[in-house]
Amino acid sequence: IDEKLILEYAEGERIEIGREFCQGTGKLLGRLSNLTGDRSQDRFEAWLREISRAGIFLPGSVKTIRDHYRRCDFGDDPWVMTHGDAMPRNIIKTEEGIFKIVDEKYLFWAPEGVGLVKLSWDLKPPEFDILKEAYEGEKQRPLPKGSTHWMSLTFYYLIFSLACNAAANSWPENVTKPFFHWKRSLVMELIGLTGFDRWQEKLAWRAPYKVYRNWKIFFGMKGRANPPLKRDAA
Hints:
The chain has helices spanning 19-33, 44-53, 59-71, 117-122, 125-138, 147-168, 171-175, 178-190, 195-218; strands at 80-83, 91-93, 99-101, 107-110. It is mainly alpha-helical.
């Protein structure tokens, strides 16, 4: 239907962000993460090819991203089934009180905890704490901790998210999104891109974005604020 594959029709209501949403979604994601695979399920290289195709990063930066990925700390846990955007628009509660995912395109195998990264940005700290507690209550393994580990998960999620931008949006659509530029900047920070290389990356995307942003300011339009970077949300 309209180029979408319908796997199942589900009736239910969307729940606004609050305690019920955080508890129900945390339990859902926790049960989902009990489905395990292994690193052969990894799609990092496919995402990186999509990012390269769309020119989101220059070739030299892509190589640095790949090198950084090899140094990431993902621990010894298996890859788990993950949802990359578990927000109210993608979650419903059925009449029986069961929380269900309604958009399967955000499901993928990933290191344990990657699915919590975006939620740590989108939810207020007390809301995220409720969700994380419900998540951990459904798990068969403890959630890894530590700032280095969390930064590795953040990096992995950012590459997934930028690959989605590359696949779904045209250059003009991406260049006008402040959150897209924030994600690019965060990747550059995490991989340690500095000097001339970083200047080239900024020139490729930030220059046209600044023209667009100044145009918006002139006409009194507002955009989305960037979330703070949490270095130890796990």
